[in-house]
Amino acid sequence: MSTASRHHSEDVDIADFLGSQRKVIDDHLGLFLPAAEEAPPIIHEAMRYGVLNGGKRLRPVLAIAVGTALGVRFERLIHLACALEMIHAFSLIHDDLPAMDNDDYRRGQPTVHKRYGEAIAILAGDALLSLAFQTLSAMPSEDHAEGCKQIEVLQLIARSAGSSGGMIGGQVADITTEGQDFDREQLESIHRAKTGALITASVEGAAILSSCSGAEVSRIRDFGRRIGLAFQVVDDILDVEGSTAELGKTSGKDQAVRKATYPALYGLEESRRMVRVLIESACDDVSFLGSRANILNELARFISIRRF
Ligand code: GRG
């Protein structure tokens, strides 16, 4: 964890928190994923490589942080958390393919297709999406009410990854507008779908599993929408400012392909100001949680100051 990410507030150290959560999440991911030796081994090796080879685990950490603040049992939350990371890993593996971003490095290591070939990378991504829903459907529900919430979360996660306003739809809009002129509304809607939808679903899904009211779920959703957009604006800024070594992937690619980004449309300074405003409003969204929001506030701030 870089020193820039080490940030104290009251009793929360975000670097320690992320590190300890990451370990718990990775241990469970390791159990949910098929063993590398299981037939056919090549795809299981590739799936494990794509998921377990680094990454911040931001989406699962957000789900666990919100769910814990709202009193959701860990044995239910961990299914949501790991499913989110599997879907995220699927998107990264496919995004790196020659047909999309054509990247050789991810998280500082060769991309899945560089290591296992394109066919296996495509299939590993497909299998991770499938495993995510298998993992969600295996969430332990003790009664009818818990079962209903589980189905609601399944629908939410399916929508957030899908083609209508979800991650896949956002990716399509992103690649089909490369090199074209774009306006503010188009840019925001691409960002909200491509990256924002899964981040929003991470916190909203955890809130749905709790016993909080519809109005409170809606405040958590707003929190997710704001940090999700801020996350992608920071990603755009880092593509301009960050180095390939720091990011673990090739920097400067957005400008090269004239991609729709916040710095391209608003400039760096205004983009940074927008991130600050989004994060402050996100912290207001969860103020109803009182001190239980401390860790959520820190995670939101981490998103705005991250360097990788
Ligand atoms: C191919 C279906 C499909 C979707 C692709 C999310 C996405 C859509 C592509 C990923 C490409 C990319 C760099 C998007 C920008 C934001 C983003 C998701 C960055 C990577 O997420 P982090 O920073 O990654 O959470 P780590 O490595 O920490 O897990």
Rg is 18 Å
**Dominant shape:** globular
Largest sheet: 2 strands, antiparallel
Q: What compounds are bound to the protein?
A: geranylgeranyl diphosphate
Counted by DSSP, the helix tally is 15
Uncertain stretches of 5 or more adjacent residues: 1-9
The strands making up the biggest β-sheet line up spatially as 1-2
**Quick check: average pLDDT?**
93
Distance between the termini: 10 Å
- The ordered H/E elements are EEHHHHEEHHHHHHHHHHH
Number of strand elements: 4
Q: What fraction of the residues are assigned to beta strands by DSSP? A: under 5%
SS class: mainly alpha
Percent helix range:
55-70%
Task: Write a brief caption for the model.
The chain is mainly alpha-helical and 308 residues long. It has helices at residues 14-32, 41-52, 58-69, 74-95, 112-116, 118-137, 144-161, 167-176, 184-209, 214-241, 244-247, 253-256, 262-266, 268-285, 294-305, and strands spanning 8-9, 12-13, 105-106, 109-110.
Walkthrough of the structure:
This protein has 308 residues and is an all-alpha fold. The protein is 70% helix and 3% strand. It has helices spanning 14-32, 41-52, 58-69, 74-95, 112-116, 118-137, 144-161, 167-176, 184-209, 214-241, 244-247, 253-256, 262-266, 268-285, 294-305; strands at 8-9, 12-13, 105-106, 109-110. The strands form two sheets. The chain has a two-stranded antiparallel ribbon. A two-stranded antiparallel sheet has the order 3-4. Strand 1 and strand 2 (12-13) form a beta hairpin. Helix 1 (14-32) crosses helix 4 and helix 10 runs antiparallel to helix 14 (268-285). The longest helix is centred in the last third of the chain and has 28 residues, at 214-241. The protein is globular and about 50 Å long. Residues 55-56, 58, 88, 91-92, 94-95, 100, 107, 167-168, 171, 194-195, 232, 235 line the site of geranylgeranyl diphosphate.
